[in-house]
Specification:
heterodimer, A: mainly alpha, 2 domains, globular, B: alpha/beta, two-stranded antiparallel sheet
Chain lengths: ~475, ~375
């Protein structure tokens, strides 16, 4: 089920909220888990079993790790849990990728397994891994209550598109959390903003991307329009989902960590990755990069660690070589920045943004491509080596038709609007006006978002490969 | 506790729970009048349908279709796209010079070729050796609207000259110069019958007959919301719908071969339906025969046509003893000799650019 859908907004969510707040405290986790399983099973009933199996193995191994903490068996149980988790992820997500790659290299034709990818498996696998590793490290006690652990992993707000919530961050809230009007109001605001980012910006830009892909009249201008729109679409889609997740979590009393912090204002790729998909970046840092030795090793080993992490980051996003290329491109850029570029970038406030956004845009063209070949073909066309005209009538029409949305998206990708809002909120007039205007604004945004959903407007789901 | 927080929670809850409850209490509709389509029904609920996901899929179609105030929400969406985001079109429908139209570009010559190949096959199968065969292309309203308002447009000259070239063994009748934007409804794709008497006159002249041009104009409706009105969801003034009556339209007989029944030329019962344009010869019909007992005995015409001919044929009937209207989007042309006597008939292939450019529907 998608957050940005009528069944979610007007059937699932009211039912969940009503029942959740109607039942006594001790039943709240059970209610939330039940609805989370319904949410997941709605789209993929058969994969519920797989997810429950993953949760159960995490639960059992967590207890076993804790029980044998002082002995070697603890490591064996951790290894077993990690192995089971990665085996499931590997089989569902990467089996056909490896077989296809093997076939391409050897010329053989080993039949593909054609395994459908269970939605959200990358997210919940990482959450289970973080739980068992944290228990092994002694950072958190094992969760004895199965419902609580299952809720941590399957909680519907963050189940299919993150943020990747750390067990250590949320463990106390599973037992005891605050429900208040302030939390609910914050959650509603955040959810509405996220929903609007997804429906009014990302989905509209997705129409531009789709019309570019369907067009037989391409040009350099059209390629750049596509590249910029795609870059903005991915941000608004992904950060919109994160906002909705954080908002929903807060309504139910959970505080999820932030996942995006205006990444497109970054002055370097290093800064970009501190602001983009923060929960994934910190997961890889804590559970892969640092265990590999991080930067406290020799230079060649350090480079190796960076490349491993970015290979993993790339392939986490999708089982295809263009995602690997996307990850490795960032590895190269980050190594260069760490070695020499960063100090130069700090000298220019304009060029550093141009450099960062150029590679971010290039990165998302690679990310969005069907294959490495089509990624390079798109890049050639963007830079005028595709034998295309500079401008085409359809590109000009598309630019005119989407200009306002693009401007809103670019402004919305910076903290400018939020700063203006906060500044106004702090004034005396602002606090009075916003008491009425903010609730009205939320209802207005909900109305327009609902209107787009009722109209059956383009509503793609980007996370099917994650 | 801030007052603002309370307002936010109350307002959002009222909105979401209110609409959810209204949706639950409102009876389902079967049809969307404005969109002219049946609405999705509630999916069958069973263990199997849930397990295979068909219930969920069906419910995701059902729930927006039966959402409370659906038409109002669609209007909000259209206005947001046009007025706030200044988008040039909404779901492919655009508004220019007070007219709604649908983007249709670029020209698809493969589609035109598929259509003209079929036309030539029909001529080869059925037309007498000496039969006169005519071909004419009706420009859709984008011809007068798209390029002039900076909308992408097909290259009409290229499309029409390609079609003419493909049909070069028959006489082409050029009607484009007789048409202008105001000859089309503002909210619909079709031309207005009261504005195409000159087109009828030219076709009659070229096919060697004379029409009774003493038309009596009758207003059928002031609230004709054409196909684009519903699709656009914009609040626009409706069109007026007229019909032109002659003695021939009063006296002729219309036979619907599909339903084996007689129909009026102007079927007023259709004024109570979803598409008022169906008042002309009862709308989409695969095979109609119009007999005019007082028409010249040697003038019998078979028109291979799309919906544009529904409003044109009543104007032509005074010049013919018989007009057969064939819509090969609804009947296979291979079956035609079972129903139509082609002896001594002239053939007119009269198609709009929209159908030629999207000829997948032609059988």
């Amino acid at each position: 089920m998608l957050f940005s859908s009528i069944p979610f907004l007007y059937v699932f969510l009211p039912l969940t909220v009503a029942l959740y707040f109607a039942v006594p405290k001790k039943l709240k986790n059970g209610v939330l888990l039940f609805f989370s399983l319904v949410f997941y099973g709605w789209g993929e009933p058969k994969y519920l079993i797989l997810m429950l199996f993953s949760i159960t193995q995490g639960y059992i191994f967590g207890l076993l790790i804790e029980r044998t903490r002082e002995s070697r068996r603890s490591k064996v149980f951790l290894t077993a849990s990690v192995f089971v988790s990665l085996l499931l992820l590997g089989y569902c997500k990467y089996a056909d990728f490896f077989i296809g790659s093997f076939n391409s290299i050897t010329g053989l034709s080993v039949p593909l397994l054609k395994v459908a990818l269970p939605i959200g498996i990358s997210f919940y696998t990482f959450q289970i891994l973080s739980y068992t590793i944290d228990v092994y490290r002694g950072d958190v006690p094992a969760q004895r209550n199965y419902v609580n652990l299952a809720l941590y992993i399957a909680m519907f707000p963050q189940l299919i598109a993150g943020p990747i919530v750390r067990y250590s961050d949320i463990a106390p809230q599973l037992e005891n959390r605050t429900h208040s009007i302030e939390n609910a109001a914050y959650g509603i605001r955040r959810f509405t903003v996220g929903l609007s980012k997804k429906i009014l910006i990302a989905n509209v830009l997705a129409e531009l991307v789709s019309s570019f892909k369907d067009s037989g009249e391409q040009s350099v201008l059209f390629f750049w329009l596509y590249a910029v729109a795609c870059t903005l679409q991915i941000y608004f889609d992904f950060s919109g989902y994160s906002d909705m997740a954080i908002g929903l979590g807060r309504i139910f009393g959970f505080c999820f960590s932030e996942n995006f912090d205006y990444p497109y204002i970054s002055g370097s790729i290093t800064e970009f990755w501190r602001r983009w998909h923060i929960s994934l970046g910190s997961w890889f840092r804590d559970y892969l990069y640092i265990p590999l030795g991080g930067n406290r090793v020799g230079k060649s080993r350090w480079f190796f660690n960076i490349f491993v992490v970015w290979f993993a980051t790339g392939i986490w996003h999708g089982a295809a070589w263009n995602f690997v290329l996307w990850g490795l491109m960032y590895a190269m850029l980050l190594v260069n920045e760490k070695l020499w570029l960063l100090k130069w970038l700090k000298k220019s406030r304009v060029l550093n943004h141009v450099y960062t956004m150029l590679f971010v845009v290039i990165g998302f063209v690679v990310f969005d491509a069907d294959s490495v070949g089509s990624a390079f073909s798109a890049l050639r066309s963007m830079f005028g080596f595709g034998g295309l005209p500079i401008i085409s009538a359809q590109a000009v029409y598309t630019l005119k038709s989407f200009a306002v949305v693009l401007i809103i998206a670019i402004a919305g990708a910076t903290p400018l609007l939020q700063k203006l809002f906060r500044r106004f909120e702090k004034t005396k007039a602002g606090s009075v006006v916003l008491t009425v205007a903010e609730p009205l604004g939320i209802v207005l945004l909900l109305t327009v978002c609902t209107a787009y959903l009722v109209d059956g407007s383009f509503n793609p789901f980007l996370y099917f490969r994650f | 506790m801030k007052k603002k927080d309370i307002f936010v929670v109350v307002a959002a809850s009222f909105f979401v729970f209110g609409l959810a409850l209204t949706g639950l209490l409102m009876p389902d509709k079967e049809m969307s009048v404005s969109e002219r389509r049946p609405l999705a029904g509630f999916p069958g609920l069973s263990f199997e349908s849930v397990a295979d996901g068909s219930f969920q899929e069906g419910f995701e179609e059902y729930s927006p279709d039966h959402f409370p105030f659906r038409d109002g929400f669609r209007t909000v969406k259209a206005l947001t796209a046009y007025k706030l985001f200044r988008q040039k079109d909404n779901n492919g429908i655009y508004l220019a010079d007070g007219h709604l139209s649908k983007l249709d570009y670029p020209e698809n010559l493969d589609s035109v070729k598929k259509a003209t190949d079929r036309f030539r096959e029909i001529i080869g199968w059925y037309a007498d050796k000496n039969a006169k065969v005519y071909f004419s292309v009706i420009p859709d309203k984008n011809y007068f609207l798209a390029r002039q308002n900076d909308y992408p447009s097909m290259d009409y000259d290229r499309l029409i000259s390609f079609a003419k070239n493909e049909m070069n063994t028959v006489e082409y009748i050029d009607i484009i110069d007789l048409l202008e934007l105001s000859d089309y409804y503002r909210t619909d794709s079709h031309w207005r019958q009261e504005c195409i008497t000159d087109v009828a006159g030219l076709l009659a002249e070229k096919t060697g007959t004379v029409l009774d041009e003493t038309y009596t104009e009758k207003n059928l409706s002031d609230s004709f919301c054409g196909v684009y009105a519903g699709q656009s969801a914009l609040p626009l003034t409706a069109d007026e719908l007229y019909c032109l009556e002659t003695q021939a339209t009063e006296n002729c007989l219309v036979y619907d071969a599909e339903n084996e029944s007689n129909l009026p030329v102007y079927n007023k019962e259709k004024l109570a339906g979803n598409d008022l344009y169906e008042v002309y010869l009862s709308g989409a019909k695969s095979l109609l025969k119009i007999e005019n007992p007082k028409g010249p005995s040697d003038k019998k015409l078979i028109i291979f046509r799309d919906s544009f001919a529904s409003s044109l044929a009543p104007l032509l009937i005074s010049g013919y003893r018989e007009i057969t209207l064939v819509d090969i989007r609804y009947i296979s042309p291979k079956l035609l000799d079972r129903f139509i006597d082609f002896d001594g008939r002239e053939l007119l292939f009269l198609y709009s650019t929209g159908v030629l450019n999207n000829s997948v529907t032609i059988k």
